[in-house]
Design goal:
Number of helices: 13
Helix content: over 70%
Radius of gyration: 20 Å
Distance between the termini: 23 Å
Structural class: mainly alpha
Length: 257
């Protein structure tokens, strides 16, 4: 399994190389991006510890590459299949799939420039609304939100005052938080979770682990530089919107350990 994950990660790195080349037109930046991806500590640790993150991250990168490139009919069919798999692989996948699809439709001029923001806003509003009202496992998803957890650090959250039926929705968790603590507390939680999305260190990591992860903050600097290097505005949009959507998804739910 480790070998399969290593192969998948390497293939994902080649897709990242090609994606950076397409978006920036700079081969040197593409080489640097590929190497940083391959030798990134989180990526390496996911591969050897058999975390599903390896598959999900590789899937994101491969789907992104197929999104920004000119596709043959076979590649188009593969791309659509990957978007569907991405939706079911992890909850954030649906946001990325919609972003990739809207980018493609925009590139093919299915929408006028003035229409795209409206279509995008409606699409993501419907998804986020569904996120709040659809019933899911209370113990796995809703109780951590109702507990006000920033980062999930335990398998079970005991909240006696909160409804403990097998399935409930996130709206019920926010109703509980509002009744118990008020709107200011909810806003505070949102901001703390938003910050946690970009925080690489953890209080329960070892000093060595946190030191290694602190070095990775330099990648943020390189990412910002790369963002401004991209000549295509739509290339900037797809990356910025993807990051903001994932950050906000964490901010309204919770950050995984």
């Amino acid at each position: 399994v480790i070998i399969a994950q290593a192969i998948l990660t390497f293939y994902g790195s080649t897709c990242l190389y090609k994606t950076i080349q397409l978006l920036t037109g700079k081969e040197s930046a593409a080489h640097i991006g590929m190497l940083l991806f391959l030798f990134s500590f989180p990526i390496q640790s996911w591969v050897v510890t058999l975390f599903s993150d390896t598959f999900f991250v590789a899937l994101i990168v491969i789907a992104l590459y197929l999104t920004v490139k000119q596709k043959t009919k076979v590649e188009f069919a593969i791309w659509i299949s990957l978007l569907i798999v991405l939706i079911f692989a992890r909850p954030p996948g649906i946001f990325l799939s919609i972003t990739y699809l809207l980018y493609f439709l925009s590139e093919k001029s299915y929408f006028k420039k003035k229409q795209l923001p409206i279509v995008s806003t409606v699409a993501f509003f419907l998804v986020i609304t569904s996120l709040f009202i659809l019933p899911v496992s209370t113990n796995d998803y809703i109780k951590p939100v109702a507990s006000g957890a920033i980062i999930i650090d335990q398998p079970y959250y005991n909240i006696p005052q909160f409804d403990t039926i097998d399935k409930s929705n996130m709206l019920s968790a926010y109703d509980y938080l509002y009744d118990k603590y008020g709107s200011v507390h909810i806003i505070s939680l949102y901001l703390k979770k938003l910050v946690s999305f970009f925080t690489l260190t953890r209080p329960y990591y070892s000093n060595l682990h946190n030191s290694v992860m602190t070095i990775h903050y330099f990648l943020y600097v390189l990412s910002i530089m790369g963002f401004f290097m991209m000549p295509k505005k739509r290339g900037k949009y797809i990356l910025l919107i993807s990051i903001l959507l994932l950050a906000n998804l964490t901010a309204i739910t919770f950050n995984e350990w």
